[in-house]
Amino acid sequence: MIKFLDLHKINDRFRDQFHEALNEDLNDSHFILGKSVTKFENEFSDYCGTRYCIGTGNGLDALTLILKGYIALGQLKEGDKVIVPANTFIATILSVIHAGLTPVFAEPDKATYNISAESIKSVFNDDIKAIIVVHLYGQLADVDAISKVIKDKNVLLIEDAAQAHGASCENGRAGNLTNAGAFSFYPSKNLGALGDGGAIVTNDPDLNSVVRKLSNYGSDIKYENQIIGYNSRLDGLQASFLSIKLQSLNKDNERRQEIARMYLSEIKNPKIQLPFYNNSNNHVFYAFVVEVEDRNQLIKYLESNEIGWLIHYPKPPHKQEALKVYSKLKLPITEKIHQRVISLPISPVMTNDEVNRVIEVLNTY
Ligand SMILES: *Cc1c(COP(=O)(O)O)cnc(C)c1O
Fold first, then answer.
1. C-alpha neighbours within 13 Å on the C-beta side of residue 159
2. CA distance 34 to 310
3. CA-based, 20 to 30 A from 104: which of 2, 40, 48, 96?
4. 202-205 — which CB contacts under 8 Å span 24+ positions?
5. Does this model's pTM top 0.70?
6. Closest ligand 1 atom, CA of 186?
7. What is the DSSP letter of 343?
8. Partners of 38 in beta bridges
9. Domains of the chain by residue range
């Protein structure tokens, strides 16, 4: 059986270091916002190339706190419109709603699955005050082209980088391409904790100080609460685990890219549409997503050959019960993608034998 994602094997590589970290954190016993959090925040801002990193409880909170931070700073106000990709994990859209803002859905580009300058232009108007790009499946959205659309306009650009830790282009790494970036350290992500975790990265000192307070009861001095805050902090033990795993992130991403190249050059089946990859570091393959006409048939075939699979995602956000107010929107590209996509196994711990087996099975489908 080839697992879709072998989390046990991924984390087992660090088992001894995790135990050491647990021992150190127990000795220190400063469990909340202790030195392991500061250490990871410094390491991760260095890694992303940003001035600041603020740990949060999870990726959804990282996104929500960025938006609430801009509201607290007076750069956004309740009801303002925010462009989001229609084709994303629901968290992107929930963050907008939780911040009291209004999502405006943009269709993705068919080749990259990301929103593009063109798709943004087609829904843009003067009420739009922010855009959240998602680097979906690990591939950077074309932030350069999107920036040109909003040049000289007072529009914030924010990255949902929850699937793109370490992806980079000439302008820098994911999280450092816009006003602020949000990361998730959910266990299955390219940089995953052993539980929930998230972070905000930014170069904006005002956003840094306001989201730091918001995430910690509106306070940066103990028992002094300056604003109405939340409790969404990166757990200290998770920060220690993440510091250990961050050391391997580049190597892990390179292995994901290597597997993707094998799939791209060796899967040859007209029934399977392979993803677009420009062969650069702008894609870190959180997911290797193919499209097929008859997905159920492929699923049956994969299962009979003991190959794991997953669908990112089976139902678009605007068709979810929770977002039924948006169910009448016409988003044909998004809906078609959701009917056709299926993700193949990809992870830094997959062996070449396993990759070759997946290729062989797909080529005989
Ligand atoms: C995982 C993910 C999130 C949310 O992260 P959590 O840590 O689960 O809250 C947000 N956006 C995208 C695109 C994600 O994949």
1. 36
2. 37
3. 48
4. 202/50, 202/51, 202/52, 202/54, 202/66, 203/50, 203/51, 203/52, 203/176, 204/52, 204/179, 204/180, 205/51, 205/52
5. yes
6. 7
7. E
8. none
9. 7-246, 249-363
Tokens of 288: 């290797």
Q: Do domains 7-246 and 249-363 have the same CATH topology?
A: no
Share of the chain above pLDDT 90, in %: 100
CB count in 10 Å sphere of residue 325 = 9
Strand 156-160 relative to strand 128-134, pairing: parallel
Residues with CB under 6 A from ligand 1: 58-60, 88-89, 91-92, 134, 160, 162-163, 184, 186, 196, 198
**How large is the average pLDDT for residues 282-302?**
98
Arithmetic mean of pLDDT over the chain: 97
Q: Give the architecture-level CATH label for domain 7-246.
A: 3-Layer(aba) Sandwich (3.40)
The tokens describing 175, both together, are 């999280």
Span 205-215, pLDDT tens digits: 999 999 999 99
Nearest CA, atom 2, ligand 1: 162
Looking at residue 294, what is its pLDDT?
97
283 to 59, 112, 141, 259: CA distances (angstroms):
20, 10, 10, 12
How high is the pLDDT of residue 19?
A: 98
87 C-alpha to center of ligand 1: Å?
13
Question: CATH classification of 249-363 is 3.90.1150.10, yes or no?
Answer: yes
What letters, b where the CB count within 10 A reaches 16 and e where it falls short, cover 85-101? bbbbbbbbbbbbbbbeb
247: part of which helix (H) or strand (E)? none
Question: For a pLDDT cut of 70, what percent of the chain falls above it?
Answer: 100
Tell me the pLDDT band of 252, cut-offs 50, 70 and 90: very high
Which helix (H) or strand (E) segment holds residue 162: the answer is none
Site to substitute for ligand 1 among 186, 200, 233, 343, most atoms within 8 A of C-beta: 186
CB-based contacts of 266, cutoff 8 Å, min separation 6:
356, 359, 363
* Nearest alpha carbon, ligand 1 atom 5: 59
pLDDT band for position 157 (50/70/90)? very high
